[in-house]
């Protein structure tokens, strides 16, 4: 029993560490090295950016490169290991963030949700959902 | 002679689109689930939501609120349970603030303030809808009955949903709560929301509804 609790605890805490390391890299790449972003996604990764769907890492890369330069500030981060019933032995974590992004002089609060899966010893984004708290309608 | 500098204009940002569903067939299932979920969530008894969770589901709540002013009122329960890893460095706290299991999740949901959500503010994104797993994010606004001035608050909720028995259940969920922006306040609650007292008998969560058999969620 104690061993089970310890294994559970380890899994929960390692999801936290992975989420911290991942988000640090992800937002650093967004703001200062967009050309590297594709490295974080699975080949068949999916992004939904304010409702715009983009599939496959090369298209996601292209999409991000066309956005104006950004400065992200993360104010909130949460993470959970995804239940084995859902993903079997394929280690997967859920990461959610909230914060502000500055595109030129426009500062927008946003929330983002990622599923990351372990592939050949690296965490890769399976799906990424980004939404501004306010919709941009223009 | 000038320079060809980057002509950056924030208006170059792609336009926001409405809700997105990777598989059109999953739209009705997800919207129905959300409607039923919030009918119960906005009532004075959230216990029937237990049916929407797997027995060993995981749930965590995180929030950012101003430290003073109206936006900070009636937020103690959110702040106490918040698992914002940006602020929570202690490993024991990080472990404890992750709620494990259906019963504990329901106990927490019942402790949160009674709310009214504005369904017209909801935006749903579903990038993955496979037979084995659905990744859903829902954003929108709500009010708390405990707020004397009807303050609008904003939330973003992620569900990981898996097949269970003859239907689907939530196995992972994160809920983020914050204050609404001025824009959100202006646009929300335009249409009267029926109060929970006239919603009739409390519905049973049938998230667990299967799409017609043989109609897998994948294309």
Automatic annotation (TrEMBL), chain A:
Alphabetical keyword list: Cytoplasm, Nucleus, Protein transport, Transport
Question: What GO cellular component term, any one, is given?
Answer: cytoplasm
Q: Which CDD domains match?
A: NTF2
Q: Name one Pfam family in it.
A: NTF2
InterPro entries in the record: NTF2, NTF2-like_dom_sf, NTF2_dom, Nuclear_transport_factor_2_euk
Query: Mind telling me what this protein is named?
Result: NTF2-related export protein
Q: Which PANTHER family match?
A: NUCLEAR TRANSPORT FACTOR 2
Gene that specifies this protein: NXT2
* The organism of origin for this protein: Halocaridina rubra (Hawaiian red shrimp)
Protein task: Has a role in nuclear-cytoplasmic transport of proteins and mRNAs.
Q: Which residues form the NTF2 domain?
A: 18-132
């Amino acid at each position: 029993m104690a061993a089970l609790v310890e294994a559970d605890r380890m899994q929960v805490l390692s999801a936290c560490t992975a989420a911290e390391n991942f988000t640090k890299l992800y937002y650093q790449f967004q703001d200062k090295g967009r050309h590297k972003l594709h490295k974080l996604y699975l080949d068949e990764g999916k992004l939904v950016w304010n409702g715009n769907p983009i599939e496959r890492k090369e298209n996601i890369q292209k999409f991000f490169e066309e956005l104006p330069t950004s400065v992200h500030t993360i104010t909130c981060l949460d993470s959970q290991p995804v239940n084995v019933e859902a993903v079997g032995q394929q280690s997967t974590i859920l990461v959610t963030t909230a914060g502000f992004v500055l595109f030129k002089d426009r500062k927008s609060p946003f929330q983002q949700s990622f599923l990351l899966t372990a592939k050949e010893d690296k965490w890769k984004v399976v799906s990424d959902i980004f939404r501004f708290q306010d919709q941009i309608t223009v | 002679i000038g320079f060809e500098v980057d002509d950056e204009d924030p208006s170059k940002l792609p336009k926001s689109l409405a809700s997105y569903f990777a598989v059109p067939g999953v739209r009705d299932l997800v919207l129905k689930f959300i409607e039923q979920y919030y009918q119960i969530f906005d009532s004075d008894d959230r216990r029937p939501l237990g049916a929407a969770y797997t027995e060993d589901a995981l749930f965590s709540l995180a929030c950012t609120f101003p430290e003073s002013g109206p936006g900070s009122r009636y937020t103690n329960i959110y702040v106490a349970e918040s698992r914002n890893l940006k602020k929570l460095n202690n490993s024991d706290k990080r472990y404890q603030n992750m709620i494990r299991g259906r019963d504990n999740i329901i106990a927490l949901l019942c402790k949160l303030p009674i709310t009214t959500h504005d369904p017209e503010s909801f935006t749903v994104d579903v990038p993955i809808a496979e037979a084995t797993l659905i990744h859903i994010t829902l954003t929108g606004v709500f009010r708390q009955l405990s707020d004397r001035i009807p303050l609008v608050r904003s939330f973003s909720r992620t569900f990981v949903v898996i097949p269970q028995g003859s239907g689907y259940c939530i196995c992972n969920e994160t809920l983020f709560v914050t204050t609404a922006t001025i824009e959100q306040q202006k646009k929300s609650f335009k249409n009267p929301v029926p109060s929970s007292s006239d919603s009739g008998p409390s519905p049973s969560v049938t998230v667990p509804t299967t799409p017609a058999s043989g109609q897998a969620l994948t294309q």
